[in-house]
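Our collaborator T.R. sent over the components below with a one-line note: 'Predict the complex.' Nothing else. No constraints on interfaces, no templates requested, no preferences about which chain binds where. So this is a plain run: every listed entity goes in together, and whatever single assembly comes back becomes the starting point for the next discussion.
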Amino acid sequence: MALRNIRVKGDPILKLKSRKVERFDERLATLLDDMQETMYKADGCGLAAVQVGVLKRVVIVDTGEGLIELVNPEIVEKRGVQHEIEGCLSVPGESGITERPQWVKVHAQTRTGEEKEYVGEGLTARAFCHEIDHLDGHLFLERLIDEDKQRMLSNKKA
Ligand code: NI
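Returned assembly:
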């Protein structure tokens, strides 16, 4: 395993669309292993391949319930709404309240190409959506709820 450099906001690669994985080979396994080491080292709860400069539809998530590897993930079902604070390893020092579904079902493949479904709620649903957004060139900054709503929510919590 090896650490890879995390790309940060301003790097044009973060706006590009990642390509579908067709080959479930050693290269993919190495990428996933390196992403895992890089994410844990940075203390993140999710990482997309594009964040380490690789335009492949690959993400990893660990919200405290163990590592989940998603290859070619797609959200196939969503329910509810949540407004919570979100940040990103590629946007250091910034965070904000986003709107995300409360529950999602994701269809994906494993590192060996096996088809699998995952269900995520709360933080895990948010992480799935956040990471899958990266694969289409979107950062959480585009999902922030508007300022009035942000203010109302922060008043409520104060
Ligand atoms: Ni991110």
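Summary for T.R.: The pocket of nickel (II) ion is lined by residues 88-90, 130, 134 (CB under 6 Å).
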